[in-house]
Every structure is written in structure tokens, then in C-alpha cells.
Amino acid sequence: MPITVPQFKEFVFNWIRENGARAQRVQLLDWGWEWWLQAELAGNLRAQDSTLDVLREQYVYEGQQRTDLVLNGSSPVNQRIIVELKTLRATEYQKAAFVKEIETDVNKLWNRLKSTQKGSQLLVMGFYFDANAPIPAGFQRREDLHKDLAVCWQDMVVID
User: Fold this and answer.
1) Which residue would you say has higher pLDDT here, 73 or 93?
2) Distance (Å, rounded) from C-alpha 54 to C-alpha 3?
3) Looking at the whole model, is its pTM more than 0.85?
4) DSSP string, the chain
5) Does residue 128 surpass a pLDDT of 90?
């Protein structure tokens, strides 16, 4: 049975509640923590339900760019969920870059998807340790899941 966007968001919220302290330690490492988060979410999702179709680093865009996760990848296109993740380290000074990187992912999803992916559900999620971190306009946020780790997101669908 395919996972839905609301189910995936709830899974992420629960993951934050349970793993915020681990994420805080990992995010301090060189090169950030986005790839670690990607693997953590994919692995834990599959551990919860081994029948879920969870793919990492898939070529869903024109050119050589890849997306972080594709959920329901072998399902009909209208059930696929293409997920972009962005992370902000607590030690970063350029908080505006976080917003710009998220907006770049939104733009990629709107304008660079392969025609075979049109109609997919799209989700961009940003993870951060600073309650004062700016988030893009139109995004929702949850800062009550863990004492340090918060998330913002926007979900959308590209119509053919």
C-alpha cells in the first residue's frame, strides 16, 4: 500500500521527536547532515514497513540532478511522492542561504521535473536547529516536536 504525504509527514514528525538529540550531534560534523538524514528517514521508513517503495538519489529532473527521496516510485505517477530535504547546521551564520537553498529546490521541482514525473506529489522539507531561522514564504513549520530540532515544509503537485 503506498504511503501518503500526510502519513510521511507524520512519520517525519515522530522521527524528530525520537531522534532530535542524535541529529543534533550529527549536524555538527563536517559536510553537514543532509545525506545522513536522507538515509535515516529512508531506512527507518523501510524498517517500519518493508513493503514500502522508498528510493534515494533518483534522477527525476532533466539533466543530472537527483532528488533526495522518491516514495511509491513504482506506483502510478499520481501516487509518487518526490521529496527534497534541506538541512541547516546550528553553527551556520548564513541563515538566508537556507531559505535560498529551499527555494532552489522548489524551483527545481516546479521547472525541471522530467515529463514522466509530471503529476507526482512534491514535498520540500527543511530541518533546522535555530528557532529564529527564516523559512520561505508559504511554508508551514513545526517547532514543538523536539527542544532543538524543527522542520518546515511545503507540499504541492505539478499538473501536466
Assistant:
1) 73
2) 10
3) yes
4) -PPPHHHHHHHHHHHHHHHHHHHHHHTTSTT-SHHHHHHHHHHHHHHH-TTS-EEEEE--BSSS--EEEEESTTS-GGG-EEEEEEE--TT-S-HHHHHHHHHHHHHHHHHSB-GGGTT-EEEEEEEES-TT----TT-EEE-SSSSS-EEEEEEEE---
5) no
